[in-house]
Amino acid sequence: MQLLDGKLAAQAIKEDLKEKTSALLQKGKRAPHLAAILVGNNGASETYVASKVKTCAEIGFGSTLKRLPEDISEEGLLAEIEELNNNPEVDGILVQLPLPKHISDEKVISAIHPSKDVDGFHPVSVGNMVAGTPTFIPATPYGILLLLEHYKVETKGKHAVVIGRSHIVGTPMSILLSRKAYPGNCTVTICHSATTNLKEMTLQGDIIVAALGQAEFLTGDMVKEGAVIVDVGITRVNDATKKSGFALKGDVKFDEVAPKSSGITPVPGGVGPMTIAGLLMNTYNAYVSKL
Ligand code: GUN
Q: Where is NADP(+) bound in this sequence (predicted)?
């Protein structure tokens, strides 16, 4: 069993981007710049956004974090996005999800200019991805592709089973793994809450991407010997022994599944750091496309 170490793979990508950024600065150019918007005080969102901003600083990217109150109006948020759309020094814009209930995700995502849509959630980006046109790919599936590539996981002709159909992970992942490309060329099955014979499906998976958001859902009896396991889940579970009061659990019961797998991502330190790497790659590409 090989540990598919996202921290290590992300480090290689970050070092590459850091060198590229330093070369830009030496030529008298400005650094790539990511603007993040965080609405309200969701604890997990705070952690994710802080990590994105911190990583920008590590590699020499500029970043702006706009914190907006939970009760900001939809119009107020759209106005903030418009300002960032019009700022030539901002290359990428992301609005951390989930948003408060009174704000429409669709409206907000559609308000981001497609040339700055580094999350890849805009309908134009999604359409381009489905059409196979170069575009921004959502950061988590992009990071997973980069991880498979880093560890040279063979994907051609494999049966990939994706659990979860979210717009952020499951749906784009299933499209990307079926593309005529590397990593890709898989036969893909996408499973979700209405799938009646899930175990039958997962037992067929040469590659399993677990992205349903249920702690330790995928157990040892659900995977075949030698499968490659990608665990996207990250659920906070109460744990009094931890200083924070919670432990982070993936969608995979690691201790049971790891011995049967040929490769598996840990949680934390697997997909999480790769998501950030994907986002930074998108931000760099947004910058370069304007040169
Ligand atoms: N919430 C959970 N995942 C993501 C992500 O990849 N991007 C944004 N903007 N919000 C998220």
A: 164-166, 234
